[in-house]
Amino acid sequence: MYTETGRILTSVYVDALNAAACLCHETGAICEAHRLNERICASVCVSKEETVEPFVILTPCGICQERLAYWGLDVEVGVPDKADPTQYHSLKLREVQPYYWRQIYSENEE
Q1: Predicted confidence band at 29 (pLDDT cuts at 50, 70, 90)?
Q2: Which of 11, 57, 76, 103 has the CA that lies 20 to 30 A from 25?
Q3: Residue 23 CB: number of other CB atoms within 10 A?
Q4: What is the C-alpha R_g of the chain?
Q5: Are strands 2-3 and 88-92 parallel, antiparallel or unpaired?
Q6: Using CA atoms, how far apart are residues 98 and 91, in angstroms rounded to an integer?
Q7: Do residues 85 and 56 touch, judged by C-beta distance below 8 A?
Q8: How do residues 39-83 score in pLDDT, each as one tens digit?
Q9: Could you read off the pLDDT of 91-101 as tens digits, one per residue?
């Protein structure tokens, strides 16, 4: 994750036997941004699994999109290129979720 001050925050996926206890790739960096009072501007999730070579880019899941929306719908996220998921391009959250639920409550919503 990239913050407004230029800081780069990283984190990892946390697996658990109980799926409800797993943590998404972005969770640690999001928590760190809150702890540091840093505004997240951009995020890209790079995933490497034993069965996937060499790595792939993952669009943030719905929960992480919700977490990133804390900083507004102009936060940019990496989405995989359809032809090559090891490459990505950036979209604003509002483009990933054009019907984001919170927009209904305010015309001035980010």
Answers
A1: very high
A2: 103
A3: 16
A4: 14
A5: unpaired
A6: 11
A7: yes
A8: 999 999 999 877 767 899 999 999 999 999 999 999 999 999 999
A9: 999 999 888 88
Under 8 Å between Cβ of 45 and 23: no
Residue listed under structure tokens 């972005």: 26
Of the candidates 1, 64, 78, the residue with the CA atom closest to the CA atom of residue 32:
1
Sign of CA dihedral 13, 30, 10, 73: positive
- At residue 20, does pLDDT exceed 80? yes
Tokens coding 31: 């928590």
pTM: 0.86
CB atoms within 10 A of CB 55: 12
- The helices-and-strands tally (H runs, E runs) of the chain is 3, 6
Structural domains in the chain plus CATH codes: 2-105 (3.40.140.10)
